[in-house]
Amino acid sequence: MLRSLVLFALAALAEIGGAWLVWQGWREQRGLWWIAAGVVALGCYGFVATFQPDANFGRILAAYGGVFVAGSLGWAMVVDGFRPDRWDVAGAALCLLGVAVIMYAPRGGSA
């Protein structure tokens, strides 16, 4: 489970960071190098998910969606000085609960 959690964190860093770099390059007019760096980071995100121990693409991507929500708020707090309200925090917590259920709930052989 620790490996899976680390991979989710790396995926979030690559995807959120990559999208932020593209945003900075285009919306904040920082230039093509920022955009190019963002595209590379987004490409790295695509590979990180393949290292998850679970072999089900749909499950991995669905669970990652919850990590992305919480990670995006964390990124915004650290990098952009965003202050989430209680509803942002509650929503992120629900998403992370969903990640835990999707990825780490005990499963029998058929379900």
Oligomer: single chain
Main structural class: mainly alpha
State mean pLDDT (0 to 100 scale): 94
Spatial gap, N to C terminus:
19 Å
Low-confidence stretches: none
Computed over alpha carbons, the radius of gyration is 15 Å
- For the secondary structure, the number of strands is 0
**Largest sheet composition:** none
Order of helices and strands: HHHH
Instruction: Assign a percent range to the helix content.
Output: over 70%
| Shape call | flat
In total, how many domains does the architecture comprise? 2
Strand content: under 5%
Q: Specify the number of helices.
A: 4
Explain briefly what this protein structure is.
It comes from Micromonospora violae. By secondary structure, the chain is mainly α. It has helices at 2-26, 32-48, 57-80, 86-104.
Q: How would you portray this structure in words?
A:
This protein has 111 residues and is mostly helical. The chain has 2 domains: 1-53; 55-110. 77% of the residues lie in helices and 0% in strands. It is built from 4 helices and no strands. It has helices at 2-26, 32-48, 57-80, 86-104. The protein is flat and about 50 Å long. The two termini are 19 Å apart. 20% of the residues are buried. It comes from Micromonospora violae. This is Small multidrug resistance family-3 protein.
List keywords for this structure.
cell membrane; 77% helix; UPF0060; flat; 4 helices; EmrE-like; 2 domains; transmembrane helix; 111 residues; mainly alpha
